[in-house]
Amino acid sequence: MQSMVTLINVFAVSPGKEEEFIRLWNETAHLMRQKPGFMDTKLHRSLNPGAQFAFINVAHWESQEAWQQAIDSNPGLQNWWQQIALIAEANPALYKVEVQY
Amino acid sequence: MQSMVTLINVFAVSPGKEEEFIRLWNETAHLMRQKPGFMDTKLHRSLNPGAQFAFINVAHWESQEAWQQAIDSNPGLQNWWQQIALIAEANPALYKVEVQY
């Protein structure tokens, strides 16, 4: 039995590196969205440039296994993470919806 | 001209305090959802108990002004924040959707 998961990645981005971050994020989003089990993704940008977390990505996958398989079958991802790490601190984790209104 | 905003609140919660956190979160969610301009909210819980951010709340409001007004017209909120602060570190900020697929 599989169930949908939410990937949330909270990014603290070095000031002035926002546009480079968006470019890098788009590169990988284009790859990941072609993988089986991808549902949707939204990159949120803070309205306040001074916010601790300038960008937060919220994505839905059909299952934890599909997400893991998408990562494992994406050999460019490690290089991408190295580039991101130069300008941002990432905090990716999988979530379920506990309560909603 | 008003436009929808996304409130994302990233919570680091003290281990063992997860259920108390959910109870407190629900108390205020019940109040906030009755305010004009509230659209929806989802409290996400990490699948990995060791994740840095155990809970992430993603809410939509019709405008930044409506959200601000909801806070200003909610006198119990300050007391709630004081209770939350005993068990969690909160990082609330407003976001717009920069990219989506």
Give your account of this protein's structure:
- The structure is a homodimer of 101-residue chains.
- Chain A has one domain (10-41, 63-101).
- Chain A is built from 3 helices and 4 strands; from the N terminus they run βαββααβ.
- Chain A has helices at residues 18-32, 64-72, 77-87, and strands spanning 5-13, 38-46, 55-61, 88-100.
- In chain A, strands 2-3-1-4 form a 4-stranded antiparallel β-sheet.
- In chain A, strand 2 and strand 3 (55-61) form a beta hairpin.
- In chain A, helix 1 (18-32) packs antiparallel against helix 3 (77-87).
- At the A-B interface, strand 1, helix 1, strand 2, strand 3 and strand 4 of A face strand 1, helix 1, strand 2, strand 3 and strand 4 of B.
- Strand 4 of chain A pairs antiparallel with strand 2 (38-46) of chain B, so a sheet runs across the interface.
- Average the pLDDT over all residues of chain A and give the rounded result: 94
Q: What is the terminal-to-terminal distance of chain A?
A: 26 Å
Main β sheet profile of chain A: 4 strands, antiparallel
Regions with little confidence, pLDDT below 50 for 5+ residues of chain A: none
Rough shape of chain A? globular
Listing every helix as H and every strand as E from the N terminus to the C terminus, the arrangement of chain A reads EHEEHHE
Give the oligomer, counting copies of the same chain as homo and different chains as hetero: homodimer
Number of helices of chain A: 3
Biggest interface, chains and residues, is: A-B, 35 and 35 residues
**Structural class of the helices, strands and pairings of chain A?**
alpha+beta
**Alpha-carbon Rg of chain A, integer:** 14 Å
- Helix amount of chain A: 25-40%
Number of domains of chain A: 1
- Number of DSSP strand runs of chain A: 4
- Order the strands across the largest sheet of chain A as they lie in space: 2-3-1-4
Percent of sequence in beta strands of chain A: 35-45%
